[in-house]
# Entry
Amino acid sequence: MIKKMTKKFIAIILLILLVTTGLAACKPEKTNKVSKIEIIKGSFKEQYALDEPLNLKNAKIKVFYVDGETNEIPITKEMVTGFDTRTNYPQQKTLEVTYKTITTTFNYKVGGETGVTSIVRFVIEEETDVNDENEYCFIKLYALYANEVKDGIYAFMFDIEKAEEISIEKSDAMSAQSFSTKYWTTTAYENEENSNKISIIAYSKNGSNSLTSVIPENESKQKILLYSLRIKRHTSPTTVELKNIYLSDGNKDTKALSVRFAISGTGSGTE
# Structure
């Protein structure tokens, strides 16, 4: 008798558990609405260099829910908008982090060369002169991202500061123009106070042809070859610098990042 009652009791308990579990499974999932988010202090990188990518290695937000619960969640790239280190004027910038439609802001700073306001970058590449592989080379000056300038580029200027061992005449710089000479022209000026410095000014002849508009369709507008300058190498590595780089859209001037480039020597090879 006792055994029968025990078996019946166990069966009832199992039935109750089964029903309870089933009812729980049928209940709709609880939605915990987010009330606000905060970036956890010290987790988000605050100081960046020019052109430095976003660093989310330790970045987290604290999520506050309407029922009083909280949670810490890593910040992903998709959650961030407004991050830009291509310019640093003003140095302090603000980005936004969004999670489930809730947004918070974070201030960060971009350091480096003062007052860079242009997204365009000038770069130099060295190319061997196939006719004289050891003694001469070409330094090629390119403009990157000119196609991203909203109102176009109609003029630019910069200073070339070279090592004393390198000879660059202003006539060499003017004749080295590699893009359209029909619609654009280059003028060069020697510096009376510094014999190792040449100032270059290039501009649209009629003021209506932007830099990218004169580049042939089959050539890159993201990386535009501006000048190809043939120079005589020194026996040891030397340097060339581009400074005071300014570009104009016809209404305002913007400043680009300076460039320093090492040219290989005839006796030591490429640096």
